[in-house]
Design brief:
This protein has helices at about 35-40, 85-90, 95-105, 250-255, 310-340, 355-365, 370-385, and strands at about 5-10, 10-15, 25, 50-55, 55-60, 70, 110-125, 135-145, 150-160, 175-185, 190-195, 195-200, 210-215, 225-235, 240, 245, 260-270, 275-285, 290-305, 340-345, 345-350, 350, 385-390. It has three domains: about 5-65, no CATH class; about 85-310; about 315-390, no CATH class. The strands form five sheets. It has a ten-stranded antiparallel β-barrel with strand order 7-8-9-10-13-14-15-17-18-19. Helices cover about 20% and strands about 40% of the residues. The chain starts with a strand and ends in a 22-residue tail after the last strand.
């Protein structure tokens, strides 16, 4: 059992476990108060204060850059210390390159404690002040929705148990999260052009031997981004590295920022024996001026955990709502197969698309005998008002090796 205990150090939130785990904050010596009795004795009372530092900004007071993001305290988790079967299978020296690629992608499934950390590391305008670092975390169940020789679809589901003030563990909160589809040598892609607009185009880079396209979708299964890269396999680890691509602002940014419009950057995914990490190197782009105003780095960490109730809660959700979300994916597949340009309206009738889907999925889970035709018609009627004709947007200046955005199987 891994026990995490919240603590405030010099005004900075940390999580202390055995020695320490620090959330977006790095302490020079330890996550502790400014004085250490043992050090004091060893140095005859002459002690240099331990100073908490924000990663990438060591000379700015940590109090001046407090971490923003989630603050929920979840229940304790048990880390799985055993390598996954896919990690072990990757060691087979007889595998072809594509076989190794597929095993590496399949290794992304499982039950995880997931953390999301982002820090701006540079600004490119006068009087720049770094934005506050971001941190959130959760527990997720990732399972295979579809698998064929050239396509693997992975669905993320957020499942959280909370500890009440009385010390009781709550019932699980279950929510469909994002989805990632991996397609081998994909012929067509939707590239993000800003203003919630995607354009379909041929992708010669993606068709090169050994290239895999990662297509990422929102919680409502609408397009998000698409990146092309290839897997590299070393004796100790496997990693996938993308070319430069563009994408919409993530919720953590558009909810608090209005000074830029597009993110562009490169991503990498690296397997570990007990999970994987998703690293990001992002630039923040103003579309009209074509100016990059800042750069950030991100690290999302997926640590495999042992949690049978979490798995069961996620599986029950998909048993109840699976046909509904299958209809949603089918509707989007039809849209993306028949249109060369797609533009999304974030809100219609003052409601986000994901709000409508989550509500309807819940109703579907408690309704029997909904035929396929009725379900497809309902889903299409929900999505259609959020898909509009494209407007003219400034042409993005291409970065070397730039590819882009979401969706597979067109």
């Amino acid at each position: 059992m891994v026990n995490d205990y919240p603590a405030f150090v010099n005004g900075i939130y940390c999580t202390v476990r055995f020695g320490l785990t620090v959330t977006a904050i790095i302490s020079i010596a330890a996550c502790s108060a400014g004085k250490n009795e043992h050090t004091a004795q060893a140095n005859e009372g002459k002690v240099a204060a331990v100073v908490a530092q924000t990663f990438a900004w060591p000379f700015i007071s940590a109090d001046a850059l407090p971490v923003r993001g989630g603050s929920t305290q979840g229940a304790d988790v048990t880390l799985d210390t055993q390598p996954s079967k896919y990690w072990q299978a990757l060691k087979n020296s007889q595998l072809t390159g594509k076989q190794r690629d597929r095993l590496a992608i399949l290794a992304l499934q499982g039950t995880f404690r997931t953390s999301f950390q982002f820090t701006e590391v540079a600004g490119f305008y006068k009087n720049y002040t770094p934005s506050r670092p971001y941190f959130s975390w959760g527990t997720e169940y990732v399972h295979v929705l579809e698998e064929s020789e050239d396509l693997i679809s992975l669905q993320h589901t957020l499942v959280m148990f909370f500890t009440t003030p009385e010390g009781q563990v709550s019932d699980p909160m279950v929510m469909k999260h994002w989805r990632q589809d991996w397609q081998y040598q994909q012929k067509l892609q939707f590239n993000y052009h800003g203003k919630n607009q995607w354009h379909k185009q041929k992708s010669p880079d993606a068709q090169q031997t050994g290239q895999w396209t990662q297509s990422v979708y929102q919680v409502d299964d609408s397009p998000r981004y698409q990146a092309v890269g290839h897997w590299q396999h070393q004796p100790q680890f496997s990693s996938w590295n993308s070319a430069t691509f563009t994408r919409p602002l993530p919720r953590r940014e558009y909810s608090v920022r209005s000074d830029y419009d597009i993110m562009q950057g490169q991503h990498s995914i690296t397997l570990t024996p007990t999970g994987w990490i998703h690293q990001q190197n992002n630039q923040k782009l103003q579309q009209t001026s074509q100016h990059v105003i800042a750069q950030e780095i991100g690290l999302n960490r997926y640590q495999r955990i042992i949690d049978r109730p979490l798995n069961e809660a996620a599986q029950k959700y998909w048993q109840d709502t699976g046909p509904y979300w299958q209809a949603v994916r089918g509707a989007w597949q039809e849209i993306l197969s028949t249109q060369d340009t797609v533009q999304l309206k974030r809100k219609v009738d003052d409601r986000f698309l994901f709000e409508k889907h989550f509500s309807q999925a819940d109703v579907f889970a408690h309704t029997s005998n909904v035929n396929e035709h009725t379900l497809n018609a309902m889903v299409t009627a929900t999505i259609t008002p959020h898909v509009s004709e494209a407007i003219t947007v400034p042409t993005l200046q291409k970065t070397e090796h730039q590819t882009s955005q979401p969706k597979t199987q067109y």
